[in-house]
Design brief:
Structural class: alpha+beta
Distance between the termini: 40 Å
Radius of gyration: 17 Å
CATH architecture: Orthogonal Bundle
CATH topology: Transferase(Phosphotransferase), domain 1
Order of helices and strands: EEEEHHEEEHEEEE
Shape: globular
CATH superfamily: Transferase(Phosphotransferase) domain 1
Number of helices: 3
Largest sheet: 6 strands, antiparallel
Number of strands: 11
Number of domains: 1
Oligomer: single chain
Length: about 160
């Protein structure tokens, strides 16, 4: 197995987001969210648990989690190893997109609205709510192409008000 790593780190709130490319038969890019050992990060653990809800994990409107690495199954005690969540790669977020190309005649605002509302409906159907919907947490790919992909991400502030 041959790996080719391209690392771009953004450290905020003790997380490091890393893009990692690897080559097997095809090339896949991923984003890795990192929780340093010994840190109690409620948002990190909440995000990881949200993906345990099947309708959230399988939604085409919510950024896909590929896997979580280094998490104890029991959930007891302080974690002493590095922990990671591996997410699908998306080109950008809305915060880093210029709005000028989309102000007139573009379908992108409708696609964004539909994707975000569909994602929120999934949360509502399982008794939850995403409390941090903002341009930083709406991720996009191929935004200037014929079929833009829009998904809601960063589930660390999601809350569930009913048992599922």
């Amino acid at each position: 197995m041959q790996f080719s790593r391209h690392i771009n780190c953004i450290s905020t709130f003790n997380f490091t987001v890393v893009s990692l490319s690897y080559k097997l038969l095809t090339v896949h890019s991923v984003v890795i969210k990192h929780k340093p050992p010994g840190r109690n990060r409620v948002e990190y653990n909440r995000e990881r648990r949200c993906y345990g809800v099947e309708s959230i994990a399988q939604s085409p409107y919510i950024r896909r989690m590929h896997e979580s690495i280094g998490h104890a199954q029991s959930g007891e005690g302080e974690d002493t190893q590095l922990q990671y969540i591996v997410f699908e790669w998306m080109d950008s977020d809305l915060c880093h997109q210029s709005s000028e190309p989309f102000r007139s005649g573009s379908q992108v605002p409708r696609i964004v609205a539909k994707a975000v509302l569909e994602a929120l409906a999934i949360f509502a159907n399982v008794g939850g709510v995403h409390t941090d919907v903002n341009p930083n947490n709406v991720v996009v790919s191929d935004v200037h192409g014929p079929s833009p992909t829009v998904k809601l991400g960063d589930l660390g502030n999601c809350m569930f008000y009913a048992c599922f």
